RNA sequence: GGCCCCAUCGUCUAGUCAGGUCUAGGACAUCAGGUUUUCAUCCUGAGAACAGGGGUUCGAAUCCCCUUGGGGUCACCA
């Protein structure tokens, strides 16, 4: 297909479980490629496997892709010029297609039982032969086949792969791929339940939808020759094929649920930002020229080239995703961040956006995941249990020193009229001077008294945001702890 | 096992197509410093890779071959 044509690309997830990170990975490249060329990104639902079908899955896929901003131009839910976009609703189309193939002699009915096929495979294994259908039903005369079909005999339709020669095609990333036809199995096109297999449905739909670029995972590379044969039997020009490397587990095997989180829902629930996940996925196989690895989708769209995707096999290591998530959190305006926290349900119970906004500046630099917000701000939204005495007494200090320091701090803060970081700073400095304590001997007990934790935000900000009354109250509670020790 | 794909720091990658500018660059992670009253952010620095062997060439991470390693696939799943 001409490289000048307007790209029409698609992803074709199967509704068989949770929305998969690999779907998003491939969708990202497809959608970006379409947008760059002013073309269309199509969502097709490949639901031809009735045994693995899950009713809730399709909706989850829609939701997850939209969460990521990977929305589509044509799809099952909002229509398009080639409806329907669900394969289970296109059975007539596949039937027509396969009839054409049977007429032209490129496909044939096969009446072999699954038992015979299984036995055949065992024999082939034992004899160390190539595994695959032996073509037994190829020889059945058309009239006989027709009669058996009419008598409702169980059958499938197979592709008649040429027994000699080779099939050649170009992969946009890997160059010319050639496979001997003797290596290619007579693929089942229509299953005995009347549903098409992926191979038929995929090619038939890609033709019907006018798909120009088939950008999909590398696991499909080896079955592409079958698709090429199908295109040519149907008299259709080939789309451009481009097979993206598979995401891997740490042991380099194909990414899997057992060894990695793969559900897009999981990432959302963990508090990853869509822009961070997208950024991370983009980096698995591509890198920007300017070496700035933190970027948004606009920048990606401006610089990405699908042909420049790397051929290596990237290990899905979320360490960098965590870093990216923190970076993207910090790039978000505070009001936007507060909105996200609320809409994604990461706000503590009873806390609203304005309240979150009060405390957000103090913790934004400490967040890696949105889900950490609640824990990191718990000292602010409710009074924590007073810290144990050992936390209130820094190393090399002692109980009396901590009590004196806290008392002095309480007193000084009490006397403060204007309560802001600007006034609190000098106020605490004077407390320090008067007591002649080492800095940590005052500040650490105070930090613990106010937040009950070591990793709190800047102390002046904490004092300020808590306000005079709550500060005094918490200091008193800690003094009580110390005095009863 | 057959067939197909792949191979640069621990990880993601730049460089490979058009061989020299590569004593191989960046990022994450790690470690060490700095900033900071804590944690984090931020800044500086360090260690860390061309799988191996042949060939072509004045010159190879880059081209060719072999080996090794890894992966995918060989379903009436996609």
Plain-language structure description:
The chain is mainly alpha-helical. Helix content is 46%, strand content 8%. The protein contains 21 helices and nine strands. The chain has helices at 21-36, 57-67, 91-103, 114-126, 142-150, 198-208, 224-233, 264-270, 274-283, 297-303, 319-331, 334-343, 353-363, 373-376, 378-381, 389-392, 399-414, 421-435, 439-451, 459-466, 468-483, and strands spanning 8-11, 40-43, 107-110, 156-159, 166-171, 175-180, 188-190, 213-217, 240-244. It has a three-stranded antiparallel beta sheet. Strands 1-2 form a two-stranded parallel ribbon. The chain has a two-stranded antiparallel sheet with strand order 5-6. Helix 6 crosses helix 7 (224-233). The mean pLDDT is 95. The protein binds one RNA strand of 78 nucleotides through helix 4, strand 6, helix 6, helix 11 and helix 19.
Give a short account of the largest sheet: 3 strands, antiparallel
Low-confidence stretches: none
In sequence order, what are the helices and strands, one letter per element?
EHEHHEHHEEEEHEHEHHHHHHHHHHHHHH
Mean pLDDT: 95
What's the overall geometry? elongated
Number of continuous helical runs? 21
Strand content: 5-15%
* Physical arrangement of strands within the biggest beta sheet: 3-4-7
Distance between the termini: 82 Å
Binned, the helix content reads 40-55%
Structural class of the helices, strands and pairings? mainly alpha
Rg calculated over all Cα atoms: 32 Å
Q: How many beta strands in the DSSP annotation?
A: 9
């Amino acid at each position: 297909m001409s490289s000048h044509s307007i790209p029409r690309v698609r992803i074709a997830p199967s509704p068989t479980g949770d929305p998969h990170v690999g779907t998003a990975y491939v969708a990202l490249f497809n959608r970006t490629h379409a947008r760059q060329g002013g073309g269309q990104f199509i969502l097709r639902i490949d639901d031809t496997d009735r045994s693995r079908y899950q009713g809730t899955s399709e909706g989850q896929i829609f939701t997850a892709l939209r969460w990521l901003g990977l929305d589509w131009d044509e799809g099952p839910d909002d229509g398009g010029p080639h409806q329907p976009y669900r394969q289970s609703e296109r059975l007539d189309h596949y039937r027509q297609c396969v009839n054409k193939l049977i007429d032209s002699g490129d496909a044939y009915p096969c009446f072999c039982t699954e038992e015979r096929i299984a036995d055949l495979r065992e024999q082939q294994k034992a004899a160390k032969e190539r595994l695959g259908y032996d073509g037994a039903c190829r020889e059945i005369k058309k009239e006989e086949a027709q009669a058996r079909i009419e008598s409702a005999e169980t059958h499938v339709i197979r592709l008649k792969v040429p027994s000699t020669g080779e099939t050649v095609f170009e992969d946009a990333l890997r160059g010319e791929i050639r496979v001997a036809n003797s290596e290619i199995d007579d693929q089942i096109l229509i299953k005995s339940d009347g549903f098409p297999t992926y191979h038929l449905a995929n090619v038939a739909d890609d033709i019907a939808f006018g798909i120009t670029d088939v950008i999909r995972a590398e696991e499909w590379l080896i079955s592409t020759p079958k698709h090429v044969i199908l295109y040519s039997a149907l008299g259709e020009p080939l789309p451009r094929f481009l097979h993206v490397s598979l995401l891997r587990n740490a042991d380099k095997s194909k990414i899997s649920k057992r060894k990695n989180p793969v559900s897009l829902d999981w990432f959302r629930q963990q508090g990853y930002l869509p822009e961070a996940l997208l950024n991370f996925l983009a980096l698995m196989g591509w890198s920007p020229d300017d070496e700035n690895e933190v970027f948004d989708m606009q920048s990606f769209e401006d610089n990405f080239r699908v042909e420049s995707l790397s051929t290596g096999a990237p290990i899905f290591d979320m360490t960098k995703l965590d870093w990216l998530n923190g970076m993207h959190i910090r790039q978000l305006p505070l009001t936007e961040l507060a909105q996200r926290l609320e809409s994604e349900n990461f706000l503590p119970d009873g806390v609203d956006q304005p309240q979150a906004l009060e405390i957000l500046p103090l913790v934004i630099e400490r967040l890696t995941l949105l889900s950490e917000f609640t824990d990191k701000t718990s000292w602010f939204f409710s009074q924590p249990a007073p810290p144990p005495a050992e936390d209130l007494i820094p190393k090399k200090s002692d109980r009396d020193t901590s009590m004196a320091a806290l008392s002095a701090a309480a007193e000084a803060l009490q006397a403060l009229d204007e309560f802001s970081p600007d006034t609190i700073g000098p106020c605490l400095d004077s407390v320090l001077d008067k007591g002649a304590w080492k800095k940590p001997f005052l500040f650490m007990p105070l930090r613990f008294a106010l937040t009950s934790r070591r990793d709190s935000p800047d102390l002046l900000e904490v004092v300020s945001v808590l306000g005079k009354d709550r500060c005094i109250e918490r200091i008193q509670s800690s003094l009580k702890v110390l005095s009863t020790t």
